[in-house]
């Protein structure tokens, strides 16, 4: 018996048709071998139809040119002739080839051109030019085909800047109309973003020699999408690229998959790979084209070829310890050592997201290859960097996807594998489960000013659906997973309980508010039985809104928002009926605090100490060593301007304030700071003291110096928008002072600006509790009037408004 895979096709349609049917329905070949065999079979048939000719060539273009024929693919064929023969003769040759194809019922995309006509058509039609890049000789005059390919590639490279801009715009237009393949329940495998059309575009970019796509997994992803399309064609018997819901089970079965969810999961994985490769490639194209356009200007400015040796040093701006900005990307510093710094991946990601920059693919690959395992529980800095990353808003998404592309997210959070690329068969949901979780964190970042623990809100947003994809109620399963994750990343027992409660009950408010009578006391008890304190209720309210907003436009409306707010108000009132926890009493001053206060009063100037403060552990060659921050204590004779002066000096020395406490001790002001250097070694204590003396006597222009820093900071964070600051008066929080609570984005000089605003408002800061939770500052200032009395309600409101305006709120 003749093997159907090797059976030649004769020039008769019936012979080709029989061999084609045997190949597609009876043969053992699948995937790329079957597509290649179908292309070879078709080549033989069309070549026989053309016959012996002079000055004529039959050329396959597009997908057929690449030798990738799906069962119902169009045959993209060009009849190329040298123009020497009479036009009627060329028409007869074309009819001899085209009519048998039409008689077979096959889709044919055909054209008849001379090389010059093909070149002119390609110049005016990008799709034609792309097809010629895949031109492959079938039959006839091989020299004609070779000359055509040479010309097509030469023109493509010469016209690359304009043609690539047009190609990118075509891709963006397809995205606007077709959406992103990896989030669609009925995706178009070819036209949606991340589909086969984008994979082909990446080949064209590589052919321009301007940039090349990341190769890891890209060919495998493209092959998988082609395999799914083959199965779709054979299942439906139609030339369709849309994977409709009613056909997904059959397509899954044809591919040997258990169900439609597994099918979509694989499609989404492939689309994610193609989309990420496209993002990286187009960014590199932009960088190369910008560099080319800048060279003539550099030559004019520098005179000749450039700087020393003809090269211009690329500017590198520091973003964080071990992370710099270079040419519009966050990259690793030359001194970075990922193998010795397990927190570096999170620190790089957080710095990139906060700066609104993409994370360099090279940096991510290096981190994935070199970074050691994270200690468990995580050091405090790792947890803080995760919160900073989640709190960056929309820039979090591309940075997170860069980490996912190299497997770093699943390495840090193994539970992520359960939700990665998991479809949600619900018309309300816009995203896969994993993207929904990240989008919820993005939405939560805009709500961090409404809660006292923005770090818990952001982590709960990331984890609230982590139980999906596992047996049982995802809220119950997710609660257990959230507890494990919270303990592993270093949260204490109380915070772990709050996170578990938020995950377990993340649907409680929306379900209760929309399905129950809010005037019924039993309805309120449903909430207060599950959430037993107002701080957690505040977090759950914000998480509910973020979850709904990240789900889709149908999940949140003014009506739903008002119902949830009403329920929260009633539950908060019920919880407030019990005993309320008062402000936390500060620890009494220790002997070192008294000593510093006495020294400050004796000398009339600041006295300070700067000492290491362990914050956790990181691995080393000898086991583990402490992760060290610094504890700074400053005592100053009581006088106006101490807080803004001290905070300004710390900002000038690039010391990040993670926590602070201000109080009166023995007639002096004692400021206790927990700080960390942004990068490099911390300054010497003597330098800090000298600058503080100058700041207090006015010889150091702290505001001016910080304004210069702020201008550079703002340029570096172009396009990044954070939630506005919030300043509120905490009612009944203190008997002898007025408590102002400030919630704002942490940034260089923030505490200095708050202190100046309070000074200008004419109030005295008696004490303060400052904390930085990820990228959010949550600070409480105990202020009085100059006579030492608490502010009147009207005056307190005025000071709060003035402070908020000074912070840009």
UniProtKB/TrEMBL annotation:
Keywords: Hydrolase, Magnesium, Multifunctional enzyme, Nucleotidyltransferase, Repeat, Transferase. Its EC number is 2.7.7.59, 3.1.4.-. Its cofactor is Mg(2+). Residues 1-318 are annotated as: Uridylyltransferase. One of its GO terms (molecular function) is [protein-PII] uridylyltransferase activity. Residues 631-707, 739-809 form the ACT domain. Gene3D superfamilies: cca-adding enzyme, domain 2. It catalyses: [protein-PII]-uridylyl-L-tyrosine + H2O = [protein-PII]-L-tyrosine + UMP + H(+); [protein-PII]-L-tyrosine + UTP = [protein-PII]-uridylyl-L-tyrosine + diphosphate. Uridylyltransferase (UTase) activity is inhibited by glutamine, while glutamine activates uridylyl-removing (UR) activity. Residues 433-556 form the HD domain. Modifies, by uridylylation and deuridylylation, the PII regulatory proteins (GlnB and homologs), in response to the nitrogen status of the cell that GlnD senses through the glutamine level. Under low glutamine levels, catalyzes the conversion of the PII proteins and UTP to PII-UMP and PPi, while under higher glutamine levels, GlnD hydrolyzes PII-UMP to PII and UMP (deuridylylation). Thus, controls uridylylation state and activity of the PII proteins, and plays an important role in the regulation of nitrogen metabolism. Has four distinct domains: an N-terminal nucleotidyltransferase (NT) domain responsible for UTase activity, a central HD domain that encodes UR activity, and two C-terminal ACT domains that seem to have a role in glutamine sensing. Belongs to the GlnD family. This is Bifunctional uridylyltransferase/uridylyl-removing enzyme. It comes from Streptomyces aureoversilis.
